[in-house]
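Read as amino acids, tokens; as here:

___
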Amino acid sequence: MEEFLRLENICKEFPGVKALDNVSFDLKKGEIHALVGENGAGKSTLIKVLTGAHAPTRGKIHVWGNEYDRMDPILSQKLGIVAVYQELVLANDISVVDNVFLGIEPSKFGFIKRSEKKKKTIELLESIGYNGLDVNATVRSLSTAQQGVVAILRALVRNAKIIIFDEPTASLSSKEVEVLFDIISKLKKQGTSLIYISHRLEEIFKIADRVTVLKDGKTVGEKKIEETNMNELIKMMVGRNVRTDVYDADRRLGKEIFRCEGITNYKVKNVSFSIKAGEIVGLYGLVGSGRTETARAIFGADPLFSGKIYIEGKEYKIKSPIVATRRSLSLIPEDRRLQGLGLQLNVKHNVNLASYKKISNFGFVSPKKERFVTVDLVKALSIKTPSINQKVSTLSGGNQQKVVVAKWLAANSKVFIMDEPTVGIDVGAKNEIYDLINKLAKEGGAVLFISSYMPELIAICDRILVMKGGEIAGEVKRQDFNEEKLLELAIKQ
């Protein structure tokens, strides 16, 4: 099989950090080569070396038989190397067609040929067998899955021969994942080579031909998919066996802590449910079902038209996140980097963001209390950070998530609303987050766990609520858990 790409002994050093240490990787024509590893293993750095965002400290890059000391973004694109990232970089307020051709618009005498762009976009959609997209629609109006298709079209119109998919399914429902896999399969048959990065290892076994494992910036090993299994990959990634049974059967449910009745606004219709002390309640639904909007409405981030919220039996009017925080509610948002953290602030400031009023006198913060709270929670949650004065932006995804949780523990929260808390987090860090969720529940907290990933809901929850069209479509108790039942509720007419 023809070799498209080979990276030889790639090293990348930053001040005080060796991000890549003699990493080698190759890719053949029409192959899907998966790249896996924990957060901080070096995957993102390797991709940035390949796309020209970083210059390697040492090593060689071979593309189509030619050797390069480094890439740059223009050269990388010229050679047909394009990345499709989890956080899509699209222009939301212009059309699909204009996004696909952004920066490379075909023109004659300075006039852009819109008809030619539209025709080519439709041809590309047909080539990957995808028909559910209006090429004149604005990107903002599209679902997450459709926006992902736009990103793939952008790659194809630039004659991509090597496409890098970085966590492409993180925000997709199971049906949307199937559509994406169909597209990837067609690209492979057409001779396109793909590098596939995902923390969801079961996906690797569905679509990849080979897998390379990185750990601490080094290549741990490379395996053909048929010659390995999930347990072996996990052990290679984390250096230990990771338990898959995360349900804590020793938890005891107490009295009702939280209840909402008839929650209604522009996205949510008559939503009612309750959570007891020590209970973990899952909230599942396809993209656009209203899960995140329900969380935001309860937390006061979005306005309510009607409905009631009770905490420990007492009704409260939650008109803003500030009021929600005072009433022991907390929200760990889906986008932790944009909505849950002050990325340029340090760990200490982030941990105390929701509770500065408690550790202040007459407007003056007590540095002693601020430090004590932070050190205590960093230790309790095993947050890996060189110092409490370290910028949060430099921490791994799993540790950033723990900092968000620490913020709400410092605020003495009783109800924890967690929206996709494990998105973009590696398998080892996921287990730490699951342990943390179990601990919060065991200590009497009430947890609403929102996820589009059915296996983790089934693994940790006591019962699961399913949403469709902004409403609760049904409830499944633990003894009845199965993916088919959840999906049936999520899509039923």
